[in-house]
Amino acid sequence: MKIGILTIHYGVNYGSALQAYALSNFLRKNGFNVEVINYIPERYRISPYFPKAKKNWLTNSLFILARFPMIFLRRKVFSDFLKKNVPMSKLYKNIKELYKDNLKYDIYITGSDQVWNKEYNGKTQDIYYLKFVPENSIKIACSASFGVSRITKKEELLEIYEALKDFKAISVREDSGLKILQKAGIRGAVQVLDPTFLFDKDSWVKHFDLNPLITEPYILVYALDNEEKRLIEFASKIAKLKGYKIALISLDNRRRNKKKVNYSFYNKSPEYFINLFSNADYVVTNSFHGVAFSINFRKQFIALSRKLYNSRLESILNLFDLSSRLTKRENDLDLNIALKEIDYNEIYLRIEEQRRKLEKFLLENIGL
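Below the sequence we write its predicted structure tokens.
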């Protein structure tokens, strides 16, 4: 049996790459022939960085050329990781190429990550709804995310219904996703964990056998949306009280932030991400996958809400009764909450229960 996975594997960030790795490798370990369909939309390729408009063409070109080495390195880090660790098909750049190839997998899986976030995916949304696959194909959604907390437009809800009505099985990552599906008229969907939970901490560490990068206690900062400065400020307050060093992992080399931490890791491969999370004493993040790995690895942590798409953070924190660990953007850090120890004894029992639920969903619905 051959399975084709359509996901946002090349989002040029750690979560995208690691969720694709986790799902594909879990299925391979269970005896399935798996490929990630290597569809990379234009927004993740180099071309969008080059100006198309004539206005300020020279200025924009010089700016982009100055940044090109960093842009190229960032993409190479993730493409090398995926080539090494994830089974992939040939490259597809648009839906026409997917239709033309007439792909022949026994089962098609869409997910995880924000595969159904229309604001995010734009004109490529039909691809993540698997509209290109041959008629009567078996289609499954695994841990799919709409990214948003609600959808109210009738035409969009109808579009969701028409796209998903013939799926064999549907699972979503957030409780808000279940509500959206119900409103669209889709029944029988379930909420499951992100695929990165398919492996526990020990399994992740065994997969990427690296020696600890830092040998003294440290707080790890992982920030998206240019929020490093704010999160480093949070980390500094905690570090001062706990006596920890501060480490930063980032895909954006900002020298002013580098000077504010003890260790910095820029444009490093996902192996470094796993290494740093597994050995951290505390985590400060605004990333969904930053929170997911903190919980999966039983880390003390605090999260900061983002400008958009906070339903993802809220859902996973609510699932494990950790909503107090989320600090709203307009608020300062509450040290009483940040320093309160998370007791993972009961939480980890729930993680194991939810992990088995995800495994069961995949194995039962893939079986023919």
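The chain has a mean pLDDT of 92.
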